[in-house]
Amino acid sequence: MSRYSWTELFVDKDRFLQVVLSNNPLAMKLEIRRYRPSDKDTVFTLFSIGIKEHIRPCFHKAMTSPLYLAITLALCAAGYLLSSVLGAVVLPAVWVGFVYYCSYKLYADYVRERLRTDMQDIPGNYLSRPDDCFWVVEAEVDGRAQIMGMVAVMAKQSGKEKYGELFRMIISPLCRRMGLGFRMAQIVVDFCKERGFSKVVLETSSTQTAAVALYEKLGFCHILSHTKTEAPLWVVTLAKVTVL
Rounded to two decimals, what is the model's pTM? Predict the structure, then answer.
């Protein structure tokens, strides 16, 4: 989850827009609107699924690193020499399981903490001040309205500088790779421009390569990396994740 900054702001547009994704086989008509209290359960579910889907890529990226491959092979050899074929299987299996546990805990703890704190009261934390907002993407699927994405922004102050921080950008798999992420980010940028903010910043994890690529395409630049998360430092270190 590293920090990015965007100081080039797009021209203003209506942030409560409707778009039709013509290359979507379902031809969904999408409305980007402000969050309503009735959205809470669906937003919680989408957020939880959207964040936890990074567990497997995180685990795969860690285990395929040269260091972890070497550790796995070394444990396999040590298990065979110290015990038998069973030892050659058990020792590396324990190691692999431990790395998966770290990958799981990193993202699961993040979801648990966010649902317990700021997202527990979205109207109070994101909609009670004019410089904050929380949007959802609603689509009509089979005659029924469904939430397909979300994004939020919160005003921040640093000395005399006022800027916006983008939060909680999640898109349903049904609506990905269709330009919706770009539109949602632009809504945040336009919102911040209307309020005279100097820039937009955000954090994402190094595992979320698609998100990083999108933000870089939009013009964000990488300005900081750290390992401060809801999970213990040893978990973050073993999962080989940095916050951008």
Answer: 0.82
